C-alpha cells in the first residue's frame, strides 16, 4: 500500500477507537458541541483524498467514514459504539483489499492516451504536410499503452509517449512529465555506460569520444576508431538502441549528424568492442559495464558539441577589435515585455548598446543562437529590424482563421489560405558589416524564425555543425493525468502559402547552412581536449576573410 493510504487507514482506526470512548463521555456530559466530533472522519478523508486522490480499493475506508458520520445524528451511546466497532472493522478490511487487488492505485495510462490522442488529432496543423496516419498510430500504440497500464509502468508510459512523439519528426512535439520520470526513461532507454560515446566524423568513421580513463588500459582513447559493437556495426547497434528520439529529428540531415551516438549504450554486463589500435591493427576487447547511466555520458558529450558563447541573454560582448557577439539564449526578455509582446524598450537598449560599440570600432556581428529553445516572434522581428537592410522585408504569412468555428479555413485541396503577411522595416544599424549566425539542432522555434528571416540578407552567413532544428509552428499543450503533450497547433506560412520552415514527409526543412563546419579530428581536439568554442573561433576567422 502507498504511504498516504496507510496513514489514512491508521487514522480511521484510531478515530474509531477514540469515538468509541467518547460515546461514553458524551452520554455522561450532555452537550451539543460533542456531536461535532463525529464529523472529524469526513475532514480526515477529505484531507487524504486531496493528498493522494480517490481509489476504488479504499471503498471500505470511505464506508467507514460514512458509518462514523451516523453518530452525528444519534446520541445513543450503544449505537455510537457499535458504529465505531463497524468502522474499525471496515478500516482494517481495507488493507487486504488493497494488497490483493490488481486494480489498487493503478494509473490508467490507456485512458490518458486515448483522450490526449483524440485532442492531438484535432489540433495538429501539419497532418497533411507531414503525411501523418493517425489511424495507424492509434492501432500501433493503443496495445502498448494497455501493456504499461497493466504493468503499472510509469517510466514505460513516458518512453511510449516519447516514441509516439518521435513519429512526427517535429521539434515541437514533445511529452513533459516529472523530471525524475524523464531522467529514468532516458537511463532505461539509452542503456549502460561502458566508458565512451560513439559518434561519426565527417569522413564517415565512427570514433570514441568522452572516453573514461579506465579504457586506456584496453588501448581505447579519444578518437580511437570503433569498428564494431557487440558483434554489430556501430550503425546497427545505434538502430538496436531503445532510445525513442534517435529518429525524432525534424530534419534528416541533423539525424545523420548524430548517427551512432546511441550505439555505445547497447549491451549487457559486458560488451565486445572492435577498434583500430594505434599501431593500425584491428583488435577486439571486452569492456565491463561501468554503470547503467549512458544517458549522463552522452548528455555531457552533446553539451560539449553544442556549447555556446558564455554570455547573458540578449547582451552584446566584445569578441575582438572589430567584432561583437549578440548572445540569444532564448527569445524572451522580461516579464512585462513578454506578456505585452512589446519589445520597444529591448530594441532601444540593444540599439544604443550596439551603436556605442560601433563607435569603438565594431564592424561585424556574430549572433549566437545555439541552444536557443525559442519564445516570442516579437523578439525575432525586433532583432531583424535592427540589422536588416533598409526597406520592407517579409517575415511570414498568417492563415485565415474562422473565429466562430475556431479552426483554420482551407481550400478544396485541404491547404491553408493566406490571410495577411507579417513584414518589418530594416534599419541597417550595422551599416554594411557582415553577420554570422551560429546555429545547431537545438536552435528551434523562434530561433528557426530568426535564421529563416535573416538568411535572406546578402550580408548574413548561417554557420554550424548542423542546421537549425527545423520546427517553427506555434505550440500548445494538452494536459493529461501523467504528463502533458506539446505539439504544433498554430500554422505559420511562407510566401507561397506553404508551411513556414518545417520539414514535410521528405524530412527536409527549408533551412540550410551557408557554411557546414566539418565535425572532424580538429573539431574534436578543440572541443574536448582544449575546451575551446570551435565554431565561434571559426566564425571570427571567417569574418576576417
Give the integer mean of the pLDDT values: 94
pLDDT < 50 runs, ≥5 residues: none
Counting structural domains, the number is 3
**How far is the first residue's CA from the last residue's CA?**
70 Å
- CATH names the topology of the largest domain as 2-enoyl-CoA Hydratase, Chain A, domain 1
Radius of gyration: 31 Å
Spatial ordering of strands, largest sheet: 7-8-9-14-15-18
In total, the number of strands is 18
Please state the structural category.
alpha/beta
CATH superfamily of the largest domain: 2-enoyl-CoA Hydratase, Chain A, domain 1
Write up this protein.
The protein is α/β, with parallel strands linked by helices. It has three domains: 97 residues, no CATH class; 108 residues, Pdz3 Domain (Roll), CATH 2.30.42.10; 240 residues, 2-enoyl-CoA Hydratase, Chain A, domain 1 (Alpha-Beta Complex). It is built from 18 helices and 18 strands. The model has no long low-confidence stretch (mean pLDDT 94).
Task: Give a brief rundown of this model.
This protein has 18 helices and 18 strands.
Essential attributes:
545 residues, alpha/beta, Pdz3 Domain, 2-enoyl-CoA Hydratase, Chain A, domain 1, 6-stranded mixed sheet, 3-stranded antiparallel sheet
Please describe the topology of this protein.
Elements (H helix, E strand, L loop, with lengths): L2 H26 L11 H13 L6 H11 L7 H23 L9 H15 L3 H4 L3 H17 L3 H13 L7 E3 L2 H12 L6 E4 L5 E4 L16 E4 L4 H7 L11 H6 L12 E7 L5 E7 L5 H12 L9 E6 L2 E5 L7 H6 L3 H16 L4 E5 L8 H11 L3 E9 L1 E2 L4 E2 L9 E9 L8 E4 L7 H9 L5 E5 L9 E6 L4 E7 L24 E2 L4 H9 L4 H11 L1
Parallel strand pairs: 8-9, 9-14, 14-15, 15-18
Antiparallel strand pairs: 1-17, 2-3, 4-5, 5-6, 7-8, 10-13, 11-12, 16-17
Helix pairs in contact: 1-2, 1-3, 1-4, 2-3, 3-4, 5-7, 7-8, 8-9, 14-15, 15-16
